[in-house]
Each structure stands twice: as C-alpha cells, then as structure tokens.
Amino acid sequence: MLASRSIVMKIAIASDLSGFPLKQELVKHLQSKQGIEVLDFGIPSEDQPKPYFEQAPLVARAIQEGKAEKGILICGTGQGMAIVANKHKGIYACVVTDIFSGERSKIINNANVITMGGWVTAPFLGKEIVDAWLAMSFTQKMEFKKDFLTNAFNQVQALEEKHFK
Asked: By CB neighbour count within 10 A (0-12 exposed, 13-18 middle, 19+ buried), where does 80 fall?
C-alpha cells in the first residue's frame, strides 16, 4: 500500500515561450518534493506559445482565489511577468536572479510570487532559487528588523487598498 502524500502547499506556475524550458525543469523539480502540489498553467508545449501578459494573470488569479499559496512565473527576463503579476491585488512578485535575491524576496518583501528569466537563469540555479525562496519566511534572518519590515509590508498593503479599487 502506498503512503499518501499530504499536500502542504500549492504552487501555481506558468511561462511564455521564452521561459518554457526552465518552467518544465522547475515543474519536475517541484513535483519531486513531498508536500507540494504544482498547478501548471502552461504553456503546455513550445508549439502552443502564449505571451507573458496572458500567462501571468493565470497564476495571479489562482493565488487571489485561494487555489494556490505561491506562484512562479518565467519569461525571457522575468521582468514582464513581474510587471503584469503586480497589477493584481494581493500579489507581491519579485524578479529573482540568484539564491540571495530569492531568499530576500520572501524575507524582506513577503513575495508570494517569484519571476525568473529563461534566457538568464540556468535550470540548476533556478531550482536552487526556488528551494531557497520556499525555505524562507517573512522576516526570517532579519528578526532585528521585524517591526520595520512588518510596517513596510503593511504600508504596501495600504497603498494597494488606495489604488486597487
């Protein structure tokens, strides 16, 4: 009898054509981890490309609707995906290019979405970035600035309330 794998976290992921190879590697990597369910919003193949501005909202809405806790978006540089994702209330997307920025996106900015560039991030590094991001919690390793970081995040949320009607 197989032991059931209890799901601890749902992660939504999507890419455009430029991010497709890296997305495929990250999906395999995440699926190999116990306690993670991957919601793959595509693209399903290189023969079915869709632009970043259509893909990013799929992950953002999955988080907004409570279908996923976190998201990963991959385009050529990660920048376009971050711009589009951040147009959605409650989405805090950061472009990450290395392990340090992956960690700090969660620790400092409480990022619930990370974006990467398929043109600039090798798969082995992408996997390490994702693992570092997932391993961190908001203000971890920065406890001495916890009050400041919490206040800063609250101010970002206040801006959201003001500008996202």
From this structure: buried
Enumerate residues 6+ apart whose C-beta is below 8 A from 60: 71, 84, 85, 87, 88, 91, 113
Q: Which residues are catalytic?
A: 75
The residue type of 156 is V
- pTM for this entry: 0.94
Closest CA to 7 of 49, 39, 29: 39
Average pLDDT over residues 102-128: 98
When pLDDT is averaged across residues 19-33 and rounded to a whole number, the result is 98
Compute the distance between CA of residue 152 and CA of residue 123 in angstroms, rounded to an integer.
33
Q: Which residue has the tokens 């059931």?
A: 4
